Every structure is written in C-alpha cells, then in structure tokens.
C-alpha cells in the first residue's frame, strides 16, 4: 500500500523564484489497485511521481510504502526500499547501445546478481511481456509499444510492489496504447502489483484505472472510484 500524507514540494528560494508545486497532497493507493492521477500541464503530476520514488525530496509530509516512511530511512535502507518501486517513462529511457536482454538485465547487473539468475529472470520477464524472441535485438529495431513493453519488463526486474507510470502511453497511438494497458492489467492481476500512473489522457484513466485523483495547481481537487469521479451527478 502506498500512502502520501500532506506532501508539500517547494522549488527554488526567495519570493519571486519560489514555486509551490505540491500543496499538501493526500493519497491512499491500496495493494493491487491501478490508481490514476490526472491533470493539465503544470498541475504537479511529475513532481508528485518524483516525490514517490524520491527523485525529488518532498519539502514536508510523509511517503509511506507498507507503513514505512521513505523520508525517515537511512541511505542504505532507502536503496533497499527503492527496489520495491519500478518506474516506466513516456520516452522509455532504454539504452540504445544495449540489447533488449541487457536493458532488462540492467537493474540486476547493477546489483551484482549471478549470471545464471539474471538469464533466468530476464527470460521469464521477456516471456511475460511477449518479447522473448527479441532479446538479441536493439531498441531501435522495435516499435514504440514494444519498447514500452521492454520498459515494463525492466521495471519488474527487481520484483517491485509498486509500478509508477509517467505518461507511459502518451507517445503511443490508440491501438498500441490499448496493448500496453492490457499488459498493465496483467501486471496487476497476475503479479498483484500496485500501479500509480500519471497522465493527461482522460481516456486512459477511464479505460484502466480503479481510482483516480484530479490534480490542479498542486492540490487534489477530487478523488475516488473512476465511475464516481467521471460520472455526472
Ligand atoms: P506536470 O507534470 O503536471 O506538468 P510539474 O510537476 O512538472 O507538473 O510542475 C508543477 C509546477 O512546478 C510547475 O509550475 C513547474 O513549472 C514547476 N516545476 C517543476 N519542476 C521544477 C523545477 N525543477 N524547478 C522549478 N520549478 C519546477
Ligand atoms: P558485454 O556487454 O559485457 O559484452 P553481453 O551483452 O555479451 O556482455 O552479455 C552479458 C551477459 O548476458 C552474459 O552473461 C551473456 O551470456 C548474457 N546474455 C546476453 N544476451 C543474452 C541472451 N540473448 N540470452 C541469454 N543470455 C544473454
């Protein structure tokens, strides 16, 4: 379970340069839920997701994963805790000079895992995302949707509890988007992974999310089950 309690983020210093990107965010994402955060450009979505994986440190508040506050951990504990968070990106962030196999293996190589274990795990992951026949290819040989499936396989390499998706389908056409969303449903249903996604694409939220929060100017203005939030009273 992922909980944000009164998370604030202020960028910059001084009266003129200060930007209050998050103004007290409260969120609760249950295990096995697909939770969407939707909002216009500049609303604070990226800041929010970066505060969960601690690419940014919140100015105040709590970020709890299974009741552990990430902001109170030592660097060593934090490294361990961050294995539980996988992330995928709009532009996939694959290494172009490395094969698909190597891209997916990278988190495990960096941890110094034994080669045999890496081979087994990467083969399993690529089979899970349906790209086992592409392991010797390079990213440029794949379509956008296939690259995102590689991104998902890589994010799953450390067996995370939570998958963060940053505009994961925004670079894709509608058909490919649908295939990636199907895969995210499979990640939730078969692996029980909790998914937090930020997007400006309303149709994606409607299609795949259980719950949604609407963010405006750094504040959540509405949240709840998708059918409640997006249905006119
Ligand atoms: P979104 O992802 O919804 O487009 P962001 O989280 O990127 O929103 O931005 C929220 C606000 O914070 C915006 O006003 C943006 O200009 C500001 N902001 C984002 N990142 C930084 C930064 N590194 N330094 C200063 N201001 C930032
Ligand atoms: P390097 O970048 O050091 O030359 P490689 O890319 O050849 O290394 O491979 C690193 C490790 O990953 C090796 O143990 C290799 O056997 C394994 N590996 C690479 N590609 C595959 C693959 N398609 N199937 C199974 N194992 C692979």
UniProtKB/TrEMBL annotation:
Alphabetized UniProt keyword annotations? Amino-acid transport, ATP-binding, Cell membrane, Membrane, Nucleotide-binding, Translocase, Transport
Q: Which GO terms fall under molecular function for this chain's record? A: ATP binding; ATP hydrolysis activity; transmembrane transporter activity
Gene Ontology CC terms, in alphabetical order: membrane protein complex
The alphabetized list of GO BP terms reads: amino acid transport
Q: Which residues form the signal peptide?
A: none
Residues annotated as domain ABC transporter: 2-233
- Statement: the UniProt record of this protein carries the keyword ATP-binding: yes
Give the family, as the similarity comment puts it. Answer: Belongs to the ABC transporter superfamily.
This chain's protein is named: Methionine ABC transporter ATP-binding protein
Q: Which organism is it from?
A: Heyndrickxia ginsengihumi
First and last residues shown, out of full length: 1 to 233 of 346
